[in-house]
């Protein structure tokens, strides 16, 4: 195996997996494109013909259902990816994206089975939406985690670049059936052909994903978070048991001099136990030495983690100890993880550090001493609880970890993606329909500029990943600069498009949807995964990305139409909305960098 990768992979296997992962994104956007570009045909085939407005409303309601389902899918598949593994998630997501696409091509029409046709369509779109919520983010995360350290930006950008061929193939498929079929043939069977094409390349992607190894960083982080959950649960149980015993002792005790006889808060004791607990994961390539985090009185370096008790002298002469409890989990033979051990620090108040003790009031010192005495008193119960909880708890709960420790990152990344998602969907989805409405161009004439824009998009994504994300340019500030450029040029371009100019029909999508959004997308595939630790990376990145895509992207056409009623023309309303989302994205940049400084470090994207 080539150890430059983040998993047990050879060079050929890594290339094959890159292709397999990019194919999932390609299928996702292929389906999105053909469903949206064949809207008039699908509306006539699947929805009741009694009222044209009701037909359109029903079509776009089913279209929106897929967007609404994406955040739910990000939660479902994110939990699966962070708790069970990346491979399981990516196998299920490719199945749930591709199978409904093929089934849509086989559905009976409204004229054949009546109202059951749109109901079945809605169910299939719902399943697709759930799967899409897990597919893209999980694929980006896997590419990022397994890529060589100096090429993470480039490799992760390939997943984003796969959007372009997906859209391009979808547009080409639509153009072929539009040119090759008469209107009657298109209604009868021609619309089915693009959906059924998925059956040719989806099985290939599925087979290539069957033997995906798990990334090393994910295995270590997952093991650590699982053991932290075990330790937290054990600390809570041991503290509750000790508090009950202390309460009973206090009722029968004449004096309160004994720490065991004082009634202490179960929550305080549990938190103290957790604060003094260390979870150490030893990967196979680090089994000869392990660097322990610093203890309260100084930094300690401990060789190995085996043994009943380890200690080291601190700089101030006090003694800090790491007491190894009875839980050591050893992984299966051949696993990247060697072992995981839970260690308990000897409480600081028993090390004889008079300087620190003098900094507290007498009351605080006494309270800390009581807590530390209680920690030592319930150490045996804690060790027993560790054994019990380790037998029960097999994985961590990513959503709980996100809600407790990383909700700010989710919120800020969601806001940071606002301008990118809104800009892309405005120029890719809303603008072609708007141009057809005001200039009466045939659908084919508005598809060719989008096709050309996708070529530029793919090139810009990969170039940004290679030269900026794998270079030394601060990625967040580069994204802020691109957001400012977008805020400056989008409104003038949209107003130019509102004149019906044929040149604007070509220039605006190629400049914004191609070059600008491609560069922004290349940055986001490197920034997003770095915001979260590996053990919750799929959940966190998927959730933030899909919320931003659904709200700022999927709802953009509806928001523009609503604002245009108060602020005509629609092109101006679209420009104003993009300015608002740009301001939100810029406002989120500095807090995001303060919270996760490594995402903006002047080094390649390799640091996890």
TrEMBL record:
Transmembrane segments: 14-37, 57-78, 90-110, 122-144, 156-180, 186-208, 410-428, 448-469, 476-496, 502-523, 543-565, 571-593
Residue intervals of the Major facilitator superfamily (MFS) profile domain: 17-600
Subcellular location: Cell membrane
Membrane topology (UniProt): Multi-pass membrane protein
Keyword set, alphabetical order: Cell membrane, Membrane, Symport, Transmembrane, Transmembrane helix, Transport
Principal location listed in the UniProt entry: membrane
PROSITE patterns per UniProt: MFS (PS50850), SUGAR_TRANSPORT_2 (PS00217)
GO cellular component terms, semicolon-separated: plasma membrane
Any one Pfam family match given in the protein's UniProt record, by short name: Sugar_tr
Keyword Glycosyltransferase carried by entry: no
Gene Ontology molecular function: symporter activity
Protein name listed in UniProt: Major facilitator superfamily (MFS) profile domain-containing protein
């Amino acid at each position: 195996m080539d150890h430059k990768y983040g998993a047990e992979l050879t060079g050929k296997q890594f290339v094959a997996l890159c292709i397999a992962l990019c194919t999932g994104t390609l299928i996702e956007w292929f389906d999105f494109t053909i469903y949206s570009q064949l809207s008039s045909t699908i509306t006539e085939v699947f929805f009741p013909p009694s009222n044209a407005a009701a037909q359109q409303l029903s079509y776009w309601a089913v279209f929106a259902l897929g967007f609404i389902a994406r955040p739910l899918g990000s939660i479902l598949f994110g939990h699966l990816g962070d708790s069970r593994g990346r491979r399981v998630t990516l196998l299920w997501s490719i199945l749930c994206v591709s199978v409904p696409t093929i089934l849509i091509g086989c559905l009976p029409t409204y004229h054949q089975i009546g109202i059951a046709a749109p109901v079945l369509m809605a169910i299939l779109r719902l399943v697709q939406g759930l799967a899409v919520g897990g597919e893209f983010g999980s694929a980006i995360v896997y590419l990022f985690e397994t890529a060589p350290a100096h090429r993470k930006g480039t490799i992760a950008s390939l997943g984003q670049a796969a959007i372009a061929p997906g859209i391009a193939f979808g547009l080409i498929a639509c153009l072929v059936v539009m040119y090759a079929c008469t209107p009657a043939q298109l209604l009868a069977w021609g619309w089915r052909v693009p959906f059924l094409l998925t059956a040719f390349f989806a099985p290939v992607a599925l087979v290539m994903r069957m033997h995906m190894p798990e990334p090393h960083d994910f295995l270590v982080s997952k093991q650590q978070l699982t053991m932290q959950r075990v330790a937290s649960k054990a600390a809570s149980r041991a503290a509750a048991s000790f508090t009950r015993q202390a309460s009973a002792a206090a009722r029968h005790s004449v004096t309160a001099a004994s720490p065991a006889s004082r009634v202490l808060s179960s929550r305080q004791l549990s938190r103290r136990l957790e604060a003094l607990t260390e979870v150490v994961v030893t990967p196979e390539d680090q089994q000869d030495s392990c660097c322990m985090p610093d203890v309260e009185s100084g930094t300690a370096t401990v060789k190995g983690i085996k043994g009943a008790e380890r200690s080291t002298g601190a700089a101030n002469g006090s003694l800090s100890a790491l007491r190894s409890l009875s839980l050591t989990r050893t992984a299966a033979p051949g696993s990247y993880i060697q072992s995981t051990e839970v260690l308990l620090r000897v409480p600081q108040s028993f090390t004889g550090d008079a300087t620190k003790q003098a900094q507290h009031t007498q009351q605080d010192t006494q309270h800390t001493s009581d807590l530390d005495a209680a920690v030592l008193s319930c150490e045996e119960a804690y060790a027993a609880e560790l054994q019990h909880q380790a037998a029960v708890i097999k994985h961590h709960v990513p959503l709980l970890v996100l809600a407790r420790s990383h909700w700010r990152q989710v919120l800020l990344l969601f806001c940071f993606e606002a301008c990118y998602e809104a800009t892309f969907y405005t120029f890719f989805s809303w603008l072609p329909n708007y141009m057809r409405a005001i200039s009466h161009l045939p659908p084919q004439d508005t598809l060719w500029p989008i096709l050309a824009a996708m070529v530029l998009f793919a090139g810009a994504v990969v170039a940004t990943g290679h030269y900026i994300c794998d270079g030394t340019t601060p990625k967040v500030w580069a994204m802020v600069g691109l957001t400012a450029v977008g805020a400056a040029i989008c409104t003038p371009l949209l107003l130019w498009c509102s004149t019906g100019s044929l040149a604007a029909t070509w220039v605006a999508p190629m400049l914004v949807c191609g070059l600008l959004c491609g560069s922004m997308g290349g940055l986001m595939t490197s920034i997003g995964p770095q915001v979260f630790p590996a053990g919750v990376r799929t959940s966190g990145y998927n959730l933030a990305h899909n919320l931003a895509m659904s709200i700022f992207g999927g709802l953009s056409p509806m928001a523009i139409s609503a604002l245009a009623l108060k602020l005509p023309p629609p092109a101006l309303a679209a420009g104003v909305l993009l300015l608002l989302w740009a301001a939100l994205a810029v406002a989120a940049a500095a807090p995001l960098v303060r919270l996760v400084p490594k995402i903006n470090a002047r080094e390649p994207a390799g640091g996890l």
